[in-house]
Design the sequence.
């Protein structure tokens, strides 16, 4: 069974469908009309059976070794003609026809050509187990024929060996065709399966790329735009502020807008370059992030108890965790005090905890709707091999905690 993982995943379909299709194709269903190739093959096999019967009959007549009583030879010829005519039904009932002809070959000599064709048909269109059973029955019929109708001119062992050799050749040729067809179907199925896997992997890669870009845009622009919203809101609610405060807020708005454009250019660069080649914020940029939030008026308490050498992926993920938590605190709990604690070391992991208190009743915003930030953040932390926990804090407010691996 081949498992193709895509955004959803599908394990039954490819292998089971291929196996069923292979078995159905190998058995040549009767409902399908014969093509030119099938008509040519059926005609050639029919002529082979008729020719073998005519040659055997002529040999008997020429040598004068006709069976006694003579009417038995006429019956033999009649049965041989019916057997050759029945070969046109070999694709519809291969096993039944083969069994009937094998039983008749135990007494009638001119059935041998049609019986060989029937054995070949069973070997081509039926599983080897069925072929083996019919072939074993044909061996019993050959022994019976040698005992019931011995030929005075040919010793019994020689006649039996010749019959077994012809039957074995017909079955062997049929098994060769059977396995060759299955091999072709298997190769074709593997090619189709490989093409399907490539298509699903491409779709999965596109899906992952879109998710990565969405996470970056949300984290980066959400932080910058929330700063813009805070300062613009301050200007809106305090139009009579001193000119110095207005100029300072306008400067922050301008710088935040410029930085948002820069960040947006970097995120869009994901479409043109591998992510590893893009400048990404790391653990060293955490203090600058906190400083920007303090400048926007947030009451922040930062405590760092971290050793040196924070891994790159853990540092980038920790930055995004703090960034998303501060953005949510500005949106959902403006004015509340926020504490950021980062601890850890080599071998024990990196722990990030952000908690905010309960904002005042007049500061709570009712027009803010919950987004997908925490869901995307959980995916980011999971990709880094860590875990994320978020929910109401015991004393009120909200708490976001994450643990990230830090190998020794």
Sequence:
């Amino acid at each position: 069974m081949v498992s193709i993982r895509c955004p959803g995943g599908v394990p039954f379909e490819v292998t089971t469908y291929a196996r069923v299709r292979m078995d159905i194709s190998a058995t040549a269903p009767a409902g399908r009309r014969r093509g030119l190739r099938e008509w040519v093959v059926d005609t050639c096999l029919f002529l082979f059976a008729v020719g073998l019967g005519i040659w055997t009959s002529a040999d008997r007549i020429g040598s004068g070794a006709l069976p006694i009583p003579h009417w038995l030879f006429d019956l033999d010829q009649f049965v041989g003609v019916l057997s050759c005519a029945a070969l046109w039904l070999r694709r519809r009932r291969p096993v039944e026809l083969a069994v009937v002809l094998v039983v008749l070959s135990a007494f009638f000599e001119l059935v041998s050509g049609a019986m060989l064709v029937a054995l070949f048909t069973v070997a081509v269109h039926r599983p080897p187990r069925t072929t083996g059973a019919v072939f074993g029955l044909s061996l019993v019929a050959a022994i019976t024929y040698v005992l019931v109708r011995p030929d005075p001119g040919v010793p019994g062992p020689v006649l039996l060996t010749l019959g077994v050799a012809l039957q074995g050749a017909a079955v062997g040729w049929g098994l060769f065709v059977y396995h060759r067809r299955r091999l072709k179907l298997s190769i074709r199925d593997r090619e189709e399966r490989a093409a399907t896997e490539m298509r699903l992997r491409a779709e999965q890669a596109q899906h992952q790329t879109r998710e990565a870009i969405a996470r970056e845009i949300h984290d980066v622009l959400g932080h910058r735009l929330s700063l813009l919203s805070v300062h613009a809101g301050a200007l809106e609610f305090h139009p009579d502020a001193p000119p110095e405060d207005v100029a300072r807020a306008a400067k922050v708005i301008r710088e935040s807008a410029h930085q948002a454009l820069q960040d947006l250019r970097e995120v869009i660069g994901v479409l043109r370059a591998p992510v590893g080649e893009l400048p990404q914020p790391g653990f060293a940029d955490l203090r600058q992030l906190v400083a920007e939030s303090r400048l926007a008026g947030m009451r922040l308490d930062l405590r760092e108890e971290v050793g040196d050498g924070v891994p790159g992926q853990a540092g980038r993920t920790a930055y995004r965790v703090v960034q998303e938590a501060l953005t949510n605190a500005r949106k959902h709990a403006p004015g509340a005090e926020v504490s950021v604690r980062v601890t850890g070391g080599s071998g024990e992991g990196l722990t990030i905890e952000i908690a905010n208190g309960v904002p005042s009743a007049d500061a709570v915003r009712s027009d803010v709707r919950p987004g997908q930030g925490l869901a995307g953040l959980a995916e980011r932390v999971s990709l880094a091999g860590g875990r994320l926990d978020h929910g109401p804090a015991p004393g009120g407010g909200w708490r976001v905690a994450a643990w990230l691996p830090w190998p020794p």
